[in-house]
Batch of 2 targets.
Target 1
Amino acid sequence: MARCSGKTKAGNQCRRPAVDSSKYCSMHQPKANPGPKPEFPDWREQFGENTQALIGLAIIGVIVLWSMTKGR
Ligand SMILES: [Zn+2]
């Protein structure tokens, strides 16, 4: 995982690891407004929920297909 390209208040390179598909960490995201309390929940939480839902649906689909195939 690459390091964040952002800079700290002291002017040094940020030590946080950059998030996937970005050169910056969660604190230095260009689109995100810097602030202690963002209005929207963290994007990683939403992404995680969607991913978990997709995985759950995929598992259910595989089980249904497998049971149908086995029943023949
Ligand atoms: Zn950073």
Target 2
Amino acid sequence: MRANQSHETIPPYPFGAYEDGINILMLGDVVGPSGVKAVESLLPTLRQAWHVDFVSANAENADGLGVTPDSARRLLAAGVDVLTGGNHTFRNHKYRDFLLKEHRALRPMNIAAPTAPGRGYGVYSTGKGKIGVINLSGKTFMDAFDNPFAAVELALADMGRSMPIVVDFHAEATGEKKALLYHLEGRVSLVVGTHTHVQTADETIVGQTGYISDLGMCGVQNSIIGMNPEPIVSHYRTGLPPAFIPARGKAAVQGVLARINPHTGACTGIKRINISEIQEATG
Ligand SMILES: [Fe+2]
Ligand SMILES: [Fe+2]
């Protein structure tokens, strides 16, 4: 079963003329089977057409609330270089083992549980040199996480300043996300938000650091943040616990494409990506 994705639906290269640099595609939370399929159908072509050197995707919702190793492997096989995580990452027990074995799978480094498996940052290779990726969670309206502002200092000290570094900040509050941008301004190449599943229109470059409050999601837009509306509406109407069932159908792929100077780590361009209406085939 394959999604009906044709090359005509891929927008032109967002930066216009190609200039040398590291092109990093960061994708928002991949939600459910339709989100996974949309990434699978689009990413191989997108990587080539847009000169993409490195891809991250937040995988915490690839199976709804949580992610299975199978879905994670599919995203990696589709061309994702590193999977980030969030507050739902530990819901699937099998993924805990996966985090121990797969260095391309991260989870927020500041999770409070001292015995949590996996790692929160890593160094990866691109065709244009190494890149560091840090995965953090916010504390505002988020349970179970330690101070991300303190945690990120440990990661930066460990990785040094010899490579571009990008941060997936999985957080609810835009104020907290913006605060991390100014905390890290000039010290990292990108700070991007995930978790809300709603793409913001505030992409910018502050100093030499690219930023967006939320990448959005790779999932069905006709939904409640990627989930079937009915059980959630019922939850709000009745007060009974909600059921979270990933919506199926046409899915969008959302995130940013950023251009990084490999020598200085400066972000020289950031473009919001929203490729919508990727039809999931039936049968
Ligand atoms: Fe999410
Ligand atoms: Fe989340």
